[in-house]
Every structure is written in C-alpha cells, then in structure tokens.
Specification:
Chain lengths: 305, 78
C-alpha cells in the first residue's frame, strides 16, 4: 500500500517552490485543486492551514480546478489577481490579501461550477450521524459559532456552503479553513491555542480576515456523508441568553432557496430537494450572546433525535 | 410547489421566479393547478367548506389577486 503524501510532508520551502513552479495539488474532498502562486503569503497560508490535506500527484488525480493568485501591477502599488484556468474573473486586490483571495476564489469555483450539488450558503457540521445547517448572513456570528462547534465535538463539513446531493439529499463534507473576521480572530486564537491560522489580511472589504485550519479529524473523515437533521439560523447579540425558537418551514425553505448559489440551475428539482430537506429537519432561530452557552445548547440539540 | 401548514413556496418554470405564499394562497394555487376555471366563490367553498361566509370571498379574492400579480393564475372574464 502506498503512503499518501500530505501537504505538511513537504518542507515549507518546497511548498513555496511547488506553488511557484509546477503548482501544488491539494485534495479537498470532494474536489482536487491545483494551486499556483509566486506570492510568499500564499505559500505561508497554504503551509499553515492545508498541512493535513493530501497532495496527490498528477498520475493519481485530475484537478477539478486549476487556480492561481498572480502578482500584477507596478512595484509602487502591487496587486494580486485570482485566476481560474488563466482567466481573471475579479478585480485585483492588494497583495496582502492574496491568501484570502485564493480562499474566496476557491469558494467561487465550487459555487459557480459544481452543479452536481445543490449548494446552499450555510455553515455545516455533523454530530451523531446528522448534520446541522447554519444558514445566516454575514455578521450573524455564523463562522465564529461554526469554528467553536468544530472544536467541541462537531465534525466540520464547511464554514461556507452546504453541498447537497441533488439525487439523494445527503450532505457532502467540504472541510476548508474557516474564515474569521476582526474580533473573532483573537477570540478563537485565545480559546483554541492549538489551532493553526493563516496570515491575516488587513483592510479587506470585510475588515481583517484570517482563516482557521479545519480540524484534522474533519479532513480524515471528509468522505463520510450524512443526512441533515437540523436547520438553525444563528444570530449573535451581545448579552443575549442562548435561545432556540421554532421557525416556520415555508419561510425556512424560501430562505434556503433564495440563498442557494445555484438554485436556478436546478429549478423545480432544487425546490423538491429543499422541501425534502426542510421536512426532514427541525428548524430553529437561535439567538446567543455567549459561546459556551451556545455550545451547550447545540450539545443538547445533538441528543434530541 | 411545496406546501406546509405555515405557508408555501412556488417555483414558476416559465419565469424561473421563486415566490413565498401564505398557506391560503398556496392552497388556492394548488386547487387551480388542475387548470379548470373556477369562480372566487368556488375557490372559497373548496378551501373553507360549504359554510364559508360570503365575506370570506373577499379574503380569497385578495389571495387570488396576489397570485395573479405573480402571473401564477389568470383572471378570465365570464
């Protein structure tokens, strides 16, 4: 049996060299990305948060997406551009945002092209064989809660999107680094000192951004699909007691459909799948002001069915 | 269309439009999806039973006008 090569098996200097020269393949189930970049902060970020992922060689695995972050512009105002198959779909950003740009671009690749799934904008975690979806707008505390739950007995599927199998409704893990913003970065660093973080990107449109590595257990079990059991809409409010309140099913289905990345691709089949998903789940709104209290509520939730 | 006790969601293939409906509007649309023309009174009786008051027709009429504004049903002048 051949040993799987993990990204962390490469020396940091080799990760940079791979990224600069032939590119680095990273298997992030269910996809394989081929990543290139000559920008040091990208190599630093990949080494920090992708160490536990397999790096298959080209004989083993075709890449689903060939992406790169290239340096563009002048010395006085260096910028970076995200590329998919050599095309640049976005306006270049400051070089300091290069790793965050790679992450955002990789999300875009999946939401824009992986239409064998119905993709919903939601964090996703699993416990006791069932998945909880946390759909919520930016600023709701979704990623902070997701990061804390991923270190408290819940298996991370994704911080950003639910990949729903359009045929059978099972949810596919897509464990990626968790995107944290502003005060959440320091909060997570202090709560989980063992966690690894990407370099920080300052002054982005979202403020300061850093990515927290997915727990290695989530990556190890990334081929284990699960059915959905709960849909919880979190909302952080300073000082609020943690409280779950039942949520109407029709409004839940409408929200999921409106916030799907590719609902229009699936149309009627997409609505059918969302309806089945909602019917199979307990649906709640969830206000919280304290992470430990929130974790306790989710612990009890996981034992509720 | 998908219906729940607390409302319905409909996807119109023709316009690729997604709409949220109240449970009454969802039930009315579900009834009309067979394509058979019905008067407002017929829809009211089908939804609420024979004992439906004539004032209920106004309520149902509002829901039918909402469905019409979404181009999900069409008004036919008798």
């Amino acid at each position: 049996m051949t040993q799987r090569l993990l990204v962390r098996d490469l020396l940091a200097v080799d990760i940079g060299r791979h990224l600069r020269q032939q590119g680095l393949r990273v298997r992030i189930p269910p996809f394989t990305f081929h990543i290139s970049s000559s920008i040091p902060i990208v190599a630093e970020g990949v080494a920090a948060v992708y160490g536990d992922y397999e790096s298959p060689d080209e004989k083993e695995s075709c890449a689903d997406f060939h992406v790169s972050v290239a340096r563009v512009g002048h010395f006085v105002n260096p910028r970076c551009a995200f590329e998919l198959d050599g095309e640049r779909p976005f306006t270049p950003l400051a070089v300091g945002e290069a790793f965050a740009f790679l992450e955002w671009g990789m999300n875009w690749c999946v939401t824009g092209y992986a239409h064998r799934y119905l993709t919903l904008h939601s964090a996703v975690l699993e416990r006791n064989g069932r998945v909880v979806l946390l759909p919520a707008p930016p600023g709701s505390g979704k990623s902070t809660l997701c990061a804390a739950l991923s270190r408290s007995g819940w298996r991370l599927f994704s911080d950003e999107m639910a990949l729903i199998d359009i045929d059978n409704g099972l949810v596919h893990p897509f464990p990626r680094p968790i995107s944290l913003k502003n005060r959440s970065i320091e909060l997570m660093r202090s709560r989980y000192p063992e966690a690894r973080f990407s370099p920080m990107a300052h002054d982005t449109l979202k403020g300061t951004v850093a990515h927290m590595a997915a727990p290695s257990s989530a990556i190890d079990h990334a081929y284990r699909l699960a059915p959905a059991g709960w849909i919880v809409f979190p909302r952080y409010r300073a000082g609020a007691p943690a409280k779950l309140v039942g949520r109407p099913k029709a409004a839940t289905a409408m929200h999921l459909a409106e916030n799907s990345f590719n609902f229009t691709v699936h149309g009627k089949a997409g609505l059918h799948r969302i309806s089945q998903l909602v019917n199979s789940c307990l649906c709640f709104d969830f206000a919280y002001g304290d992470l430990d209290e929130a974790i306790g509520v989710f612990e009890r939730l996981s034992e509720s069915r | 269309m998908s219906e729940w006790d607390d409302g319905a969601v409909v996807f119109d293939d023709a316009s690729a439009q997604l709409s949220a409906l109240s449970s009454v509007a969802g039930a009315a649309l579900s009834l009309l999806l067979d394509g058979r023309p019905r008067s407002t009174r017929e829809v009211t009786v089908a939804l609420l039973g024979d004992e439906a008051a004539f004032e209920d027709d106004d309520l149902v009429q509002n829901h039918l006008m909402h469905l019409q504004s979404l181009l999900l049903v069409q008004r036919i002048v008798a």
